[in-house]
Design brief:
The structure holds 2 protein chains of 2 kinds. By secondary structure, chain A is an alpha+beta fold. Chain A is built from 4 helices and 5 strands; from the N terminus they run βααββααββ. Chain A has helices spanning 30-42, 49-70, 104-107, 124-131; strands spanning 16-25, 77-85, 89-96, 134-140, 144-152.
Amino acid sequence: MASYSVGDCSRRGLIVRNEINIKLPSLSVNEGMARAAVAAFCVQADPSATELADIKCAVSEAVTNCIVHAYRDTIGEIQLRVRIYNEGLVNIEIKDRGCGIEDVRRAREPLYTTDAEGERSGMGFTVMENFCDGVRVTSRPGKGTTVTLTKRLQDRFSAT
Amino acid sequence: MIKTKADIAIRVHADVMDVRLPCEIDHHSAVRVRRMIDESICAHRPKTLRIDASGVDFMDSSGLGLLMGRLSLMKKLKGELILSHPSPAALRMVRLAGMERIITIETNK
Protein backbone atom coordinates (compact mmCIF):
# COMPACT_ATOMS: atom_id res chain seq x y z
CA MET A 1 0.00 0.00 0.00
CA ALA A 2 1.30 3.45 -0.86
CA SER A 3 1.74 5.65 2.16
CA TYR A 4 2.48 9.24 2.79
CA SER A 5 3.82 10.83 5.92
CA VAL A 6 2.46 14.03 7.32
CA GLY A 7 3.84 16.11 10.15
CA ASP A 8 5.20 14.95 13.45
CA CYS A 9 3.67 11.50 13.54
CA SER A 10 6.40 10.08 11.31
CA ARG A 11 8.70 10.64 14.30
CA ARG A 12 6.78 8.13 16.35
CA GLY A 13 7.05 5.59 13.57
CA LEU A 14 3.47 6.14 12.50
CA ILE A 15 2.58 6.39 8.86
CA VAL A 16 -0.55 8.14 7.59
CA ARG A 17 -2.32 5.69 5.29
CA ASN A 18 -5.20 7.91 4.32
CA GLU A 19 -6.77 11.22 5.23
CA ILE A 20 -9.95 13.21 4.62
CA ASN A 21 -10.86 16.78 5.39
CA ILE A 22 -14.43 17.94 5.72
CA LYS A 23 -15.68 21.47 6.25
CA LEU A 24 -19.27 22.07 7.18
CA PRO A 25 -21.41 24.88 8.59
CA SER A 26 -22.54 24.46 12.19
CA LEU A 27 -26.13 23.48 11.34
CA SER A 28 -27.61 20.76 13.52
CA VAL A 29 -28.90 18.96 10.43
CA ASN A 30 -25.22 18.23 9.60
CA GLU A 31 -24.61 16.19 12.79
CA GLY A 32 -25.80 12.94 11.22
CA MET A 33 -23.89 13.57 8.01
CA ALA A 34 -20.65 14.34 9.88
CA ARG A 35 -20.62 11.12 11.93
CA ALA A 36 -21.76 9.02 8.96
CA ALA A 37 -19.00 10.46 6.75
CA VAL A 38 -16.30 9.80 9.37
CA ALA A 39 -17.62 6.27 9.95
CA ALA A 40 -17.74 5.53 6.22
CA PHE A 41 -14.12 6.67 5.88
CA CYS A 42 -13.00 4.57 8.87
CA VAL A 43 -14.48 1.35 7.49
CA GLN A 44 -11.30 0.78 5.43
CA ALA A 45 -9.35 0.37 8.72
CA ASP A 46 -11.52 -2.68 9.46
CA PRO A 47 -13.15 -1.62 12.73
CA SER A 48 -15.54 -3.89 14.62
CA ALA A 49 -19.20 -2.86 14.77
CA THR A 50 -18.68 -1.65 18.34
CA GLU A 51 -15.60 0.38 17.44
CA LEU A 52 -17.47 2.01 14.58
CA ALA A 53 -20.38 2.82 16.90
CA ASP A 54 -17.88 4.33 19.38
CA ILE A 55 -16.41 6.56 16.68
CA LYS A 56 -19.84 7.72 15.47
CA CYS A 57 -20.93 8.58 18.98
CA ALA A 58 -17.73 10.44 19.91
CA VAL A 59 -17.77 12.45 16.67
CA SER A 60 -21.43 13.28 17.22
CA GLU A 61 -20.61 14.67 20.69
CA ALA A 62 -17.73 16.80 19.44
CA VAL A 63 -19.67 18.19 16.47
CA THR A 64 -22.70 18.90 18.68
CA ASN A 65 -20.44 20.84 21.07
CA CYS A 66 -19.36 23.06 18.15
CA ILE A 67 -22.99 23.72 17.20
CA VAL A 68 -24.43 24.17 20.70
CA HIS A 69 -21.51 25.89 22.46
CA ALA A 70 -18.77 27.17 20.14
CA TYR A 71 -21.17 28.79 17.68
CA ARG A 72 -24.03 29.28 20.13
CA ASP A 73 -25.58 32.39 18.55
CA THR A 74 -24.09 32.15 15.12
CA ILE A 75 -23.28 29.77 12.27
CA GLY A 76 -19.59 29.06 11.77
CA GLU A 77 -17.34 26.56 10.10
CA ILE A 78 -16.50 23.18 11.61
CA GLN A 79 -13.40 21.43 10.26
CA LEU A 80 -13.02 17.69 10.52
CA ARG A 81 -9.81 15.90 9.69
CA VAL A 82 -9.65 12.13 9.88
CA ARG A 83 -6.40 10.25 9.53
CA ILE A 84 -5.87 6.54 9.41
CA TYR A 85 -2.40 5.44 10.47
CA ASN A 86 -0.72 2.08 10.32
CA GLU A 87 -1.28 -0.29 13.24
CA GLY A 88 -5.01 0.49 13.32
CA LEU A 89 -4.72 3.97 14.74
CA VAL A 90 -7.43 6.48 13.84
CA ASN A 91 -7.10 10.14 14.64
CA ILE A 92 -10.03 12.55 14.33
CA GLU A 93 -9.64 16.28 14.74
CA ILE A 94 -12.72 18.48 15.18
CA LYS A 95 -11.91 22.16 15.00
CA ASP A 96 -13.96 25.33 15.35
CA ARG A 97 -13.24 29.03 15.50
CA GLY A 98 -16.00 29.70 18.00
CA CYS A 99 -16.13 31.15 21.50
CA GLY A 100 -13.61 28.76 23.07
CA ILE A 101 -13.75 27.17 26.52
CA GLU A 102 -12.75 29.19 29.59
CA ASP A 103 -12.08 26.19 31.81
CA VAL A 104 -11.39 22.99 29.88
CA ARG A 105 -10.95 20.86 33.00
CA ARG A 106 -14.35 21.89 34.29
CA ALA A 107 -15.98 21.39 30.88
CA ARG A 108 -14.74 17.81 30.85
CA GLU A 109 -16.33 16.94 34.22
CA PRO A 110 -19.31 14.58 33.96
CA LEU A 111 -22.70 16.33 34.14
CA TYR A 112 -21.15 19.80 33.84
CA THR A 113 -22.99 21.97 31.33
CA THR A 114 -23.32 25.68 30.64
CA ASP A 115 -26.57 25.11 28.79
CA ALA A 116 -29.07 24.16 31.49
CA GLU A 117 -32.25 25.33 29.74
CA GLY A 118 -31.30 23.54 26.53
CA GLU A 119 -31.55 20.14 28.26
CA ARG A 120 -27.97 19.15 27.59
CA SER A 121 -26.90 16.25 29.78
CA GLY A 122 -23.35 17.47 30.35
CA MET A 123 -22.06 14.05 29.29
CA GLY A 124 -20.46 14.97 25.96
CA PHE A 125 -16.80 14.80 26.98
CA THR A 126 -17.49 11.79 29.22
CA VAL A 127 -18.88 9.92 26.22
CA MET A 128 -15.84 10.87 24.12
CA GLU A 129 -13.48 9.72 26.88
CA ASN A 130 -15.30 6.42 27.32
CA PHE A 131 -15.55 5.62 23.64
CA CYS A 132 -12.04 6.69 22.57
CA ASP A 133 -8.51 5.87 23.70
CA GLY A 134 -7.46 9.49 23.75
CA VAL A 135 -9.21 12.86 23.92
CA ARG A 136 -7.16 16.02 23.67
CA VAL A 137 -8.78 19.43 23.99
CA THR A 138 -7.00 22.65 23.16
CA SER A 139 -8.99 25.85 23.45
CA ARG A 140 -8.47 29.58 23.52
CA PRO A 141 -11.35 31.78 24.64
CA GLY A 142 -12.51 33.90 21.73
CA LYS A 143 -10.40 31.93 19.26
CA GLY A 144 -11.81 28.43 19.14
CA THR A 145 -11.44 24.85 20.21
CA THR A 146 -9.80 21.76 18.75
CA VAL A 147 -10.78 18.32 19.99
CA THR A 148 -8.58 15.44 18.91
CA LEU A 149 -9.95 11.94 19.31
CA THR A 150 -7.71 8.90 19.05
CA LYS A 151 -9.06 5.41 18.58
CA ARG A 152 -6.90 2.31 18.49
CA LEU A 153 -8.64 -0.42 16.55
CA GLN A 154 -8.06 -3.98 17.71
CA ASP A 155 -6.40 -6.28 15.21
CA ARG A 156 -8.81 -9.18 15.20
CA PHE A 157 -6.51 -11.45 13.20
CA SER A 158 -3.42 -11.49 15.40
CA ALA A 159 -5.64 -13.15 17.97
CA THR A 160 -4.85 -13.75 21.60
CA MET B 1 -48.36 11.60 7.23
CA ILE B 2 -46.48 8.36 6.69
CA LYS B 3 -44.88 7.00 9.84
CA THR B 4 -41.57 5.28 9.24
CA LYS B 5 -39.01 3.81 11.60
CA ALA B 6 -37.09 7.04 11.29
CA ASP B 7 -39.98 8.97 12.77
CA ILE B 8 -41.42 9.27 16.25
CA ALA B 9 -44.79 7.70 17.00
CA ILE B 10 -47.03 8.78 19.89
CA ARG B 11 -50.15 6.96 21.10
CA VAL B 12 -52.28 7.80 24.11
CA HIS B 13 -54.79 5.45 25.72
CA ALA B 14 -56.34 6.13 29.10
CA ASP B 15 -53.60 7.65 31.25
CA VAL B 16 -50.72 5.92 29.48
CA MET B 17 -48.77 7.68 26.77
CA ASP B 18 -46.66 5.47 24.52
CA VAL B 19 -43.81 7.00 22.57
CA ARG B 20 -41.66 5.13 20.09
CA LEU B 21 -38.38 6.89 19.57
CA PRO B 22 -36.99 7.31 16.04
CA CYS B 23 -33.92 5.28 15.01
CA GLU B 24 -31.44 8.13 15.50
CA ILE B 25 -31.38 10.32 18.60
CA ASP B 26 -28.90 13.15 18.34
CA HIS B 27 -29.10 16.84 19.22
CA HIS B 28 -30.86 17.62 15.93
CA SER B 29 -33.60 14.99 16.25
CA ALA B 30 -33.94 15.35 20.04
CA VAL B 31 -35.18 18.94 19.72
CA ARG B 32 -38.15 17.82 17.63
CA VAL B 33 -38.83 14.67 19.65
CA ARG B 34 -38.82 16.68 22.88
CA ARG B 35 -41.27 19.24 21.50
CA MET B 36 -43.69 16.56 20.27
CA ILE B 37 -43.58 14.59 23.54
CA ASP B 38 -44.03 17.69 25.70
CA GLU B 39 -46.95 18.97 23.62
CA SER B 40 -48.68 15.62 23.99
CA ILE B 41 -47.94 15.45 27.73
CA CYS B 42 -49.44 18.91 28.23
CA ALA B 43 -52.52 17.97 26.21
CA HIS B 44 -53.20 14.56 27.83
CA ARG B 45 -51.55 14.74 31.27
CA PRO B 46 -50.68 11.00 31.34
CA LYS B 47 -49.86 9.16 34.58
CA THR B 48 -47.35 6.98 32.76
CA LEU B 49 -45.00 7.94 29.97
CA ARG B 50 -43.64 4.81 28.33
CA ILE B 51 -40.72 5.48 25.99
CA ASP B 52 -40.01 2.62 23.62
CA ALA B 53 -36.33 2.75 22.64
CA SER B 54 -36.23 -0.65 20.92
CA GLY B 55 -35.68 0.84 17.46
CA VAL B 56 -32.88 3.23 18.42
CA ASP B 57 -29.82 2.43 16.28
CA PHE B 58 -27.92 5.51 17.33
CA MET B 59 -28.02 7.59 20.51
CA ASP B 60 -25.56 10.13 21.86
CA SER B 61 -25.69 12.17 25.07
CA SER B 62 -28.55 14.24 23.62
CA GLY B 63 -30.70 11.17 24.26
CA LEU B 64 -29.70 11.26 27.93
CA GLY B 65 -30.75 14.89 28.13
CA LEU B 66 -34.04 13.96 26.52
CA LEU B 67 -34.70 11.15 29.03
CA MET B 68 -33.59 13.18 32.07
CA GLY B 69 -35.79 16.08 31.00
CA ARG B 70 -38.87 13.87 30.53
CA LEU B 71 -38.18 12.13 33.84
CA SER B 72 -38.21 15.42 35.73
CA LEU B 73 -41.31 16.59 33.84
CA MET B 74 -43.21 13.39 34.74
CA LYS B 75 -42.06 13.69 38.37
CA LYS B 76 -43.42 17.24 38.41
CA LEU B 77 -46.76 15.89 37.18
CA LYS B 78 -46.63 13.11 39.82
CA GLY B 79 -46.38 10.53 37.07
CA GLU B 80 -43.80 7.94 36.10
CA LEU B 81 -41.43 7.31 33.22
CA ILE B 82 -40.76 3.83 31.89
CA LEU B 83 -38.00 3.12 29.41
CA SER B 84 -39.27 0.22 27.37
CA HIS B 85 -37.05 -2.34 25.63
CA PRO B 86 -34.02 -0.13 25.10
CA SER B 87 -31.82 -1.18 22.18
CA PRO B 88 -28.14 -1.93 22.88
CA ALA B 89 -27.23 1.58 21.65
CA ALA B 90 -29.74 3.21 24.02
CA LEU B 91 -28.93 0.97 26.98
CA ARG B 92 -25.21 1.59 26.62
CA MET B 93 -25.75 5.33 26.89
CA VAL B 94 -28.15 4.99 29.85
CA ARG B 95 -25.64 2.80 31.69
CA LEU B 96 -22.75 5.14 30.98
CA ALA B 97 -24.65 7.89 32.81
CA GLY B 98 -25.73 5.52 35.60
CA MET B 99 -29.34 6.30 34.70
CA GLU B 100 -30.47 2.70 35.13
CA ARG B 101 -30.51 3.46 38.87
CA ILE B 102 -33.03 6.29 38.59
CA ILE B 103 -35.16 5.17 35.67
CA THR B 104 -37.57 2.22 35.40
CA ILE B 105 -36.49 -0.07 32.59
CA GLU B 106 -38.88 -2.63 31.12
CA THR B 107 -37.45 -5.62 29.26
CA ASN B 108 -38.59 -9.09 28.26
CA LYS B 109 -35.89 -10.81 30.27
